[in-house]
Amino acid sequence: MPEFTDDEDLGPSGIAAAHYRSVLGHFPTGVVVVTASAEHGPVGLSVNSFTAVSLEPPLVAFCAHRRSRSWVAMRERRAFCVNVLAEDQEALSRVFATRGADKFHGIGWSPAPSGSPRLWGALAWIDCSIEAVYDGGDHEICVGRVQELDVEPGDGPLVFYRGGYGRFEA
Ligand SMILES: Cc1cc2nc3c(=O)[nH]c(=O)nc-3n(C[C@H](O)[C@H](O)[C@H](O)COP(=O)(O)O)c2cc1C
After folding, report:
1. Which of 32, 51, 65 maximizes ligand 1 atoms within 8 Å of its Cβ, making it the mutation to test the pocket?
2. Deepest of 39, 85, 106, 123, by most Cβ within 10 A of its Cβ?
């Protein structure tokens, strides 16, 4: 989750950010890096709010903080590519979660059909156009229409749980 608020502060809702994050952190998720080819170069951010929405038409969604620079650039571009991270890509997740970092420095990628970066080593990629953007409080809910998608050979997924990274075991 993004770190844009003071953890101890009770917001107008009366819920402390730290408590909110701790409780929601008990829901395990995968990690994706959502990328786009912006006017000034590639952009991307780590996301765990990604989900499938609909098969017909094929829609997916994720929530992006309104102040994420990557999201603002992506929204303008009207397209993005979701990269599902593999278990050995924790470092990548950390880099793409760092605001202001030179996120693509030394990162291998190829353009997806939309031009958005497909990160080497990711387990799967889902190339989308932006179908709709809805209000989501301090976030926006982005719904993407899937244009092309595929999997790549690899091991297990990177898992995020209670603020830490792990692997999946059946
Ligand atoms: C595991 C993980 C999951 C994250 N999920 C989201 C998310 O769903 N939405 C979001 O806006 N930020 C999420 N973040 C935080 C963003 O990656 C981070 O705020 C972003 O990189 C900000 O940088 P930017 O301003 O350069 O876009 C997540 C971070 C981590 C480590």
Report:
1. 65
2. 85
Supply the pTM of this predicted model.
Answer: 0.95
| Atom 16 of ligand 1, residue of closest alpha carbon | 97
C-alpha 40/C-alpha 77 separation (Å) is 11
What residues are paired with 11 via a beta bridge? none
Reported as a single tens digit per residue, the pLDDT across 18-56 is 999 999 999 999 999 999 999 999 999 999 999 999 999
Nearest CA to ligand 1 atom 26: 99
Segments of the chain with pLDDT less than 70: 1-9
Tokens of 58: 């094929």
For the chain, the helix, strand and coil percentages under 3-state DSSP, each to the nearest 5: 15, 45, 40
As beta bridge partners, residue 51 has 61
Q: Regarding the domain with residue range 30-162, which homologous superfamily does it belong to in the CATH classification? A: Electron Transport, Fmn-binding Protein; Chain A (2.30.110.10)
